[in-house]
């Protein structure tokens, strides 16, 4: 039986809740988290995004891009409660709900509690209930697998509904710009463009062996998704063990300063994922992979969770130096945090008191 998958993604979730609860913020550029002088933006309203403000951006940069921006304190207890209310709506239709973060989830409605044959109808009902009961908007994507549902939900944001039917998938994917493929980040997209891959139809021309040669183990993933193949099931009660980010280089790197520069970029991506996942971690790990694919890691566990990007970057560079990278040719750099817990709105952003607990 062909699956019917819905991906629900709340629109500017944290910022939208602030605008809902505080009328004077409505229609204004809002950044949740940080301040004019320091910190990191946890979420930005669509009014702020028009100026180029994004989550995980340093607050000082957000202010330079949008001097009229309004910074508000994070209220994670409120966001968690609203997320819980949204999931209660999901469970009215199916128990196969896989949360990705507080503001998005996959739903398998192939067989659902209300016996509704149309996944599109279910998506419409869910969006309407979220709007009616919580006064928030959600975007939804509907298709026959997780990848396409996720891709679809991004098409008409905010407050949109997009559907990719099985008979439409091939033509849709062939014309889709490569940077719009879920799972292909900006760095990989730029690398693909240098190789002449601008749209799905270009990617489709590459045999799996060439993709593996250029993109490692993710080459197989790219080969399948451009053909609309994704057999992953919706897994309820999914508990994340760690959050990570990594980058593979087209040419090996031997210069330590270049490694540090790339490591900072990887840390930026990781911090955005930490914020979006509403998680924090006590254990930090840096991974390097040599030109011959030999992998080395170094970890450090703290008594308190890591709650600032600056501290994460500082300690990641320290761990990189501990791996003696000057004697190595590096083809991959990665950072991850584990030993996870949920973010508490009262977390202290000063990491200066963190002490080493374990190597």
Automatic annotation (TrEMBL):
Catalytic activity: DNA(n) + a 2'-deoxyribonucleoside 5'-triphosphate = DNA(n+1) + diphosphate
Any Gene Ontology biological process: DNA-templated DNA replication
GO CC terms in record: cytosol
Free-text comment on the cofactor: Binds 2 magnesium ions per subunit.
UmuC domain sequence ranges: 5-185
Binding, Mg(2+): 9, 103
Keyword tRNA processing attributed: no
Alphabetized PROSITE patterns for the sequence: UMUC (PS50173)
Transmembrane segments: none
GO molecular function: damaged DNA binding; DNA-directed DNA polymerase activity; magnesium ion binding
Alphabetized UniProt keyword annotations: Cytoplasm, DNA damage, DNA repair, DNA replication, DNA-binding, DNA-directed DNA polymerase, Magnesium, Metal-binding, Mutator protein, Nucleotidyltransferase, Transferase
NCBIfam families reported for this sequence: PRK02406.1 (NF002677), PRK14133.1 (NF010731)
The protein's assembly and partners: Monomer.
Family the entry assigns: Belongs to the DNA polymerase type-Y family.
The protein's name in its UniProt record: DNA polymerase IV
Species whose genome carries this gene: Flammeovirga agarivorans
